[in-house]
Design goal:
single chain, 260 residues, alpha+beta, 4-stranded antiparallel sheet, 21% strand
Length: 260
């Protein structure tokens, strides 16, 4: 239903065939035509997660209906849903960052978005319903979220972590911010601290990764001493058993000579 080209990839949107086929409506195609969109978020990028499946109003039935997609310079992409009139923005790993717009009677509402593009950090939307071009400017917290996402995309996890801390200061309930901080701690091999942040952020995938690395670190730290002590114990037991065997054998021989 739409496409955008960015960083040598083609981003596309399509319609779901049915209510159970809604997890691949957004794709990122490489030069071979394969979908390589990263889907590490809490849910697959698909707009609305819960929607009306039955009812009289056909406009509210079924999955989101994407009509447009836009991608910025650091992998963040936004899709427009004509069903709800909302804009869903995801980072390059597939985490939902925020939702903008929505249907309504105000001039600033989106009732039928048909095209979108980025203007710096702003999102420009063409609404066929109101026959207007609307500009969505990020809120204060969205500005910080965008900074954190850009630093993460550039590989600067420390700077990204600091911005996620600023997000938490503005909204302690923003769970993905804790995941962003956890990633930086994970990169610094501070596995226990990372596990705590991933747990707060309810990210099972990264928590499991941090736990495995922490477990491997503990095993590597104590494996050699434990094996060494074990070897000494085994050698000691073998030596003791050998000594006992020799001693008892000597006693048996002495007892035999006396009998004769």
């Amino acid at each position: 239903t739409s496409l955008a080209i960015k960083n040598q990839f083609i981003y596309t949107t399509s319609r779901a065939i049915n209510d159970t086929d809604d997890s691949r409506m957004i794709k990122r195609l490489n030069a071979e035509g394969k979908d390589v969109l990263t889907r590490n978020g809490y849910h697959d990028p698909k707009g609305d997660l819960i929607y009306v499946r039955t009812g009289v109003d056909q406009a509210l039935r079924g999955p989101s209906r994407f009509t447009a997609i836009a991608v910025n310079d650091y992998g963040v992409y936004t899709v427009a849903d004509e069903k709800s009139g909302r804009l869903f923005t995801y980072d390059d790993e597939g985490y939902l960052l925020y939702i903008s717009g929505g249907r309504g009677n105000e001039f600033r509402d989106l009732n039928n978005p048909v095209a979108i593009c980025y203007q710096g950090e702003n999102i420009i939307a063409l609404d066929a319903g109101s026959k207007a071009v609307l500009r969505f400017v990020p809120t204060d917290i969205a500005v910080v979220i965008n900074k954190a996402s850009k630093y993460h995309f550039d590989g600067n996890l420390v700077a990204s972590s600091e911005e996620w801390k600023n997000v938490i200061a503005k909204n302690p309930n923003y769970e993905y911010a804790y995941v962003g901080i956890g990633k930086s701690l994970l990169n610094e091999k501070r596995y226990q601290e990372a596990m705590s942040y991933f747990q707060t952020g309810h990210d099972v995938k990264y928590y499991s990764k941090a736990y495995k690395l922490y477990r491997d670190e503990v095993v590597a730290k104590y494996f050699t001493p434990i094996i060494t002590v074990g070897e000494f114990i085994v050698v000691g037991l073998v030596a003791y058993q050998t000594y006992r065997n020799i001693r008892y054998k000597a006693k048996d021989e002495e007892a035999g000579e006396g009998d004769e």
